[in-house]
Amino acid sequence: MDPIDVAVDLAGVDDLLTDDERDIRAAVRTFAQARIAPHVADWFERGTVEDPRGLTRELGRLGVLGMHLQGYGCAGMTATQYGLTCLELEAVDSGIRSLVSVQGSLAMYALWRWGSSELKDEWLPRMAAGEAIGCFGLTEPDHGSDPAAMHTHARRYGDDWILNGRKTWITNGSIADIAVIWANTDEGIRGFAVPTTTPGFSAHDIRHKLSLRASITSELVIEDVRVPSASAFASVRGLAGPLSCLNEARFGIIWGSLGAARTCLSAALRYSIERSQFGRPIAGFQLTQQKLADMEVEYTKGLLLALHLGRRKDAGVLKPAQVSLGKLNNVREALEICRTARTVLGANGISLEYPVIRHMNNLESVLTYEGTVEMHTLVIGKAMTGIDAFR
């Protein structure tokens, strides 16, 4: 094992993992480092992912798409194994973890949890194999943290539904084959499985991003899109549907953000040992060691929290407020680790020759999506006080 890896796991958290968990982690790390790491800085700089469909098929063959779901060609792995997978993917880039997270924890999970048997049979095996790509349409241009006020609506038309609206900041949007769209109806908020070839559906990539550039982000335009009644999720009404999916995705972020943190901590540690100033490695200066120690402490606490929540999820006792606790803490501390690592690297910290600025920029988005800092703070506050402060 690389001495840097040993130093980064100073507390020996690795000893708490099972052999199967280490095997899954090793397989994903090997794939990510060989297939993605050599190219991702270039993808980030160019603002595009080379052959995203080919990459998705490779991820399908690896078995990580919907890996925590049962049946339909899904791997049926544990939540903790899925978390470790997210960590290893985001150790390379948040955008790659987002691709897998949106596919498995949002689009596939929505179909798996709320879709009909026909929808599951039609889509889930292809999505697990990476042969079909999904996206998840909840956020709108004017409604992010308050999805209940969404403008997208659906009305009955005979045996069909007619959908109209717009969704934005949608990962995988322009390459998706199936879109899970949430819309207001006379019966409350409902979910719909919409093939992206349906007339009236279009997706347009969002340009000029300075974060998650190695990720496809789109706006969805839905104009008189007509789908059969079988496309509607029959068993759920209201925000319970989309929020159940978001909790799945947020769980992956709890782990994934630590992958970005680990990469930046490792880069800072290695750089501090190799970089000399005033006749000695900068790792030998007290201020640098304080930065390294602080990063190590926060990374270790975040990893222990992620593992604890993973064990709770595997036991079926994880609560939404606990997911908010993990997402808020781990992303916030991971971002601070990346920022501190940038200072250790000095001017080199802003170069794509090193991974730090890329991870730092990516985490600015991760801090916001799947629930902002403010929203998760209020979820935790309500759980502690019993008082709803959202309105």
TrEMBL record:
GO BP field: fatty acid beta-oxidation using acyl-CoA dehydrogenase; fatty-acyl-CoA biosynthetic process
Protein name: Acyl-CoA dehydrogenase family protein
PANTHER family per UniProt: GLUTARYL-COA DEHYDROGENASE, MITOCHONDRIAL
Keyword Oxidoreductase: yes
One GO MF term: fatty-acyl-CoA binding
Pfam families: Acyl-CoA_dh_1 (PF00441), Acyl-CoA_dh_M (PF02770), Acyl-CoA_dh_N (PF02771)
Cofactor needs: FAD
Keywords for this protein: FAD, Flavoprotein, Oxidoreductase, Transit peptide
InterPro entries (alphabetical): Acyl-CoA_Oxase/DH_mid-dom, Acyl-CoA_Oxase/DH_mid-dom_sf, AcylCo_DH-like_C, AcylCo_DH/oxidase_C, AcylCoA_DH/ox_N, AcylCoA_DH/ox_N_sf, AcylCoA_DH/oxidase_NM_dom_sf, Glutaryl-CoA_DH_mitochondrial
Residues annotated as domain Acyl-CoA dehydrogenase/oxidase C-terminal: 238-384
Residues of the Acyl-CoA oxidase/dehydrogenase middle domain: 135-225
Flavoprotein as UniProt keyword: yes
Similarity comment: Belongs to the acyl-CoA dehydrogenase family.
Domain Acyl-CoA dehydrogenase/oxidase N-terminal: 18-131
Superkingdom of the organism of origin: Bacteria
